[in-house]
Queue: 2 jobs
Job 1
Amino acid sequence: EAQVTQNPRYLITVTGKKLTVTCSQNMNHEYMSWYRQDPGLGLRQIYYSMNVEVTDKGDVPEGYKVSRKEKRNFPLILESPSPNQTSLYFCASSFGQGRGNTEAFFGQGTRLTVV
Amino acid sequence: GEDVEQSLFLSVREGDSSVINCTYTDSSSTYLYWYKQEPGAGLQLLTYIFSNMDMKQDQRLTVLLNKKDKHLSLRIADTQTGDSAIYFCAERGPSGGYQKVTFGIGTKLQVIP
């Protein structure tokens, strides 16, 4: 089954404690991205990756890091989480440019609370 | 930068048609999308339209695009309680290079039995 898998689904952590949210896709997609969803703000892109070893900042990259060492995985790293990073996070993947009507597959989401 | 705007809330009776509207600012958009988000779930792509099309129909869903006014709408015929969800409009553009997707804040559709 084609899917994007995020882990964990729920996480409560304390300020400053490094954490990683994993994302994996099984569709051989080139393009992967991370979004955060906040009430009244919709989805905002954090980082994206157009292929292995190619990553770039989205609209709200501050406080986040990513890596793309393999095509299927795109982890989101919070080196020193703060309460303003409490949010619902989504990973998405799709075929890269040149594929016309690409479709983005979304993971189920990770609800992060930083206290 | 690009902006996508939607109304926050829509309430309809079961069996009626729902129309969710969206406006966008990027005149170089290539594709426009409608996503559905059910409670506790990720986003599911419902349908999309290429920017050189005016209309697209897919079963109960009809997408209308007015490129001149940068207005996109999603019509759901015979709305069912299972259609209750948040609907996001999104646009992708420009063509060539990095094709960023910009989302609206979502319209919550409530279907009254």
Job 2
Amino acid sequence: AQSVTQLGSHVSVSEGALVLLRCNYSSSVPPYLFWYVQYPNQGLQLLLKYTSAATLVKGINGFEAEFKKSETSFHLTKPSAHMSDAAEYFCAVGTGTASKLTFGTGTRLQVTL
Amino acid sequence: KAGVTQTPRYLIKTRGQQVTLSCSPISGHRSVSWYQQTPGQGLQFLFEYFSETQRNKGNFPGRFSGRQFSNSRSEMNVSTLELGDSALYLCASSPSPSGGTDTQYFGPGTRLTVL
């Protein structure tokens, strides 16, 4: 069985500041890890995906995440926050032969002036 | 290429009724998964269909069911609606049968309100 823990249900940063959203996973087999973003009244949009090719994964909109097996972590970062980054972010893990994702509880990112 | 489409976008039903939601995957995608999103429980996996067969099922009661057609379009049905079924229902499609490694592309969701 797999699980995902996102630390911090709400994160607030100033525009231009570093964004760090935390995700820890638990999986009995090598995981495939995803970060999705959800804007109000919309579905989920993929930011980036880890599938064991490279530990540092670059995604869209300047986001990146680093897979650290020893820490079972896959934290999402962005060097400089923009107002348009305000949204809810979900970390998810996928394993096995079925397209089934297990999601974390989400982190709502607020960006202030 | 068009994205995942879901119809209707908004739905209001009363307790005891049943509802059918529809999902059209991205062209060429053969796997369709359904998720329920609520403020209390977050995002939870309902079931996945691949080549018209249910490949995996989440921990939901039998009132929740689904099917997939030969063109990969999928429907989910909820019978005997309860207030707790109010949620955003998200459909996601993925291109190949690789399962967990595939990227899932999500639709905009159907917002179901049960009164």
